[in-house]
Write a structure and sequence with these properties.
Helix 5 (about 75-95) packs antiparallel against helix 9. It is globular, with a radius of gyration of 20 Å. The longest helix has 21 residues, at about 75-95. It is built from 9 helices and 9 strands. It is α+β, with helices and mostly antiparallel strands.
Length: about 260
Amino acid sequence: MVKTLDKMVSIIESFTKVKNVWSLRDLSAHLGMPKPSLYRFLVSFEHYGILQRCDNESNWSLGYCLFIWGSHVPQVATLQQITRPFLRDLVSKTGETAVLTVYNNLEVICIDKIESKHTVRQELTVGERRVPYAGATSKIHMAYISEDEVNAIIQNGLRKFTDKTVTDPDELKAQLARIRREGYSFTCEERDPGVWGLAAPIQDDMGRVVAAIGLIGLAFRLEKDMVPHYIQLCCHMVKKIEEVLCGTTQTRKPSILDDTSTLQ
């Protein structure tokens, strides 16, 4: 049953924004699954509305059922509705791309974004999954998960994406502790060459981190004296989001980041 479920999930996850239509032959080659058994899965998915045939009948795409299921996830919908105006505000004030991410099963997933107006910008796709140990918008989540999960991520292996990716477990844990103390994460060229990132955690009324908002930009545009302002701005937005999300102002440990007098 577990192997069957694994196959079902691998089929569904093959449909992405980049590749949203598959033929039986191409999907079979992509998954390394025999065409007869794959076809049985596709027909079953079609029956339940999970997949649908395209106009020419020989290609397949995602069906309406997944959209219906997605609408049944109120937390994600609520987070997107609440945070979107603040993401827009971040883009307006910084000129860089703003993102909303969540953590699930040892991965960080982008669930919403507002893109920068710049012609040259870093691409991050909604629905894209990333490792939690590299980059600000990922590492902010890793700082707040359990020690067991942190160790599981480390045991899975720390791939070096750039020469600035931290792959030493002790150094990584020290960075995570600093992120928890400071309440934000800032990295430069840790996940993608020429790209910086900044992120801050969003907490619910129980103090649990349910999501994070972040900024992503290209390093050649970043002026060092703007970093403190971006940090302050991002943390200020998080506090506003939490007030809406929880219906009350959160009580937090006083921090220099609470000084919003320089915000515009």
